[in-house]
Amino acid sequence: MLTSAIAGERNAFAELVRRHTPIAHRTAVLLGAGSDADDVVQEAFVKAYRGLQRFRVGAPFRPWLLRIVANETSNLQRSVRRRRVREGVDEPLPHVVDDPADSAISRDRQRLLRQAVQQLPSGLQMVVTCRYLLDLDEAETAQVLGIARGTVKSRNHRALARLRTSGVRSD
Length: 171
Prior knowledge:
The protein is mostly helical. The protein has 8 helices and no strands.
């Protein structure tokens, strides 16, 4: 299907969109797009479609797409920050919507965990989001964030250490 999409078959690309929209949307929300997640995902798919000719055949599509989503989310956040500075408005912490997959964790613990993750520096926050909230492996996380796999490992280690010292317990 991917090779068909690269060859220009619109139905094949439409199938890729159908398959990958849920994870792309979740990625946008968890990385901070909030209510603009639909717009971020739509723009990411437009850019992916335009960039299919540059896609390396044989590489996994999902991490490539999610990197585009992450970049579009960053673009959105930069734009929002610039607008807030220009308008003199304080920047609130990004809101992460509740996910049915998190239903096993009490609402209170879930809120505390979200707050602790949001307090992490951006680079650590992005790694934790990719690894644990999006369930990406180290290689996929590295590709999505455009960093080395070793950087993913070290940031993950530092982030988990900070979360432990923040009082968020894992039991």
